[in-house]
UniProtKB/TrEMBL annotation:
SUPFAM superfamilies found in the cross-reference section: vWA-like
UniProt organism field: Fodinibius sediminis
Name of the protein: von Willebrand factor type A domain-containing protein
InterPro entries named among the record's database cross-references: vWFA_dom_sf (IPR036465)
Amino acid sequence: MRKDEIVLVIDKSGSMAAIKDDAIGGFNSFIAEQRKYDRDASVTFALFDDRYQLVCNGRDIRGMEALTEETYRPSGMTALLDAVGRTIDRVGDRLDSLPESDKPENVIVFILTDGRENASSDYSRDKVREMIEHQESKYGWEFIYGGANQDAFSEAGGLGIKARNTFEFEASGQGTRRAFDESSEFVARYRNDLPENEPKKRK
């Protein structure tokens, strides 16, 4: 059976506190929607502020635990570049170690943030762009970017993420719910539309 890898890099900096409940609800709805597809999926989930938390790396989507007020506590600043860079490295290393038969057909990375980068120390913008473009061109990964309180298209473009995979959302309860709904639609499109006779190269 074909399998997908869904990678979620989600902001939990202090500014997310005002929309915390909707971020939690939106995330849980996203997972519930992706579970409905008749194909296997693994989930890698990272949270970030000015620290990095890899919640899971390649967990079966059926075993994903709901996000709660205990596990999602906004604080700190926005080390977006470090979060994206570390996540790409960790997922890439894990997929490298898998036998070919266990590697996913699709790797889809969704990044959501309500603010611009202001705290990274280990990964530069140029480095992350290079990493994203490498994964896209060599292994067919797809990157999706949702941003609030910024020009999301400019920010995503600076990271090498396609405009067609970018959207802006309002940093409100309703806007945050819509952001997760929209990201779920993006992910569903890539999970459904890969031609059977044109497999992507797999890392």
